[in-house]
Amino acid sequence: MSYAVAAALQGAVYQRLQGDAALTALVGSRVYDAVPKGRLPELYVALGPERAVDASDKTGRGAWHEFAVSVISDDAGFQTAKEVSAAVCDALIDAGLVLDRGRLVALNFKRAVAQREKAGRRRVDLTFRARVEDDA
Description:
The protein is an alpha+beta fold. Helix content is 26%, strand content 38%. The chain has helices spanning 6-19, 21-27, 79-92, and strands at 31-32, 43-54, 62-73, 103-116, 122-133. The chain has a five-stranded mixed sheet with strand order 1-2-3-5-4. A hairpin with a 7-residue loop joins β2 (43-54) and β3 (62-73). α2 (21-27) runs antiparallel to α3. The relative contact order is 0.24.
């Protein structure tokens, strides 16, 4: 197994979300790789945890990466969070991301969990599954 493509995948996902017109129309530039300190905006998207497992074979090194993208909203209901979540899915599912290292073979949606947080915020955690190959 190689975790060598992880940073390239994360960077490509972040750039895709930052540059997506439909998502930007909903959240502006509030797509974060690292959530800023201090008062948080009322609506934002943040990259979350990742898990990788080996997918290497005789032809080369590779991995399956499961990663989360979270949508956080202060709205009373889930409607806004779900609209933003749909835009995140539209931007990422089957996206032809170009990586700085390696190659993206597939990028698919796996699951979503919508929940209320203690502070009254709404949160949708989207999990995606990406298959990558290392070409180095």
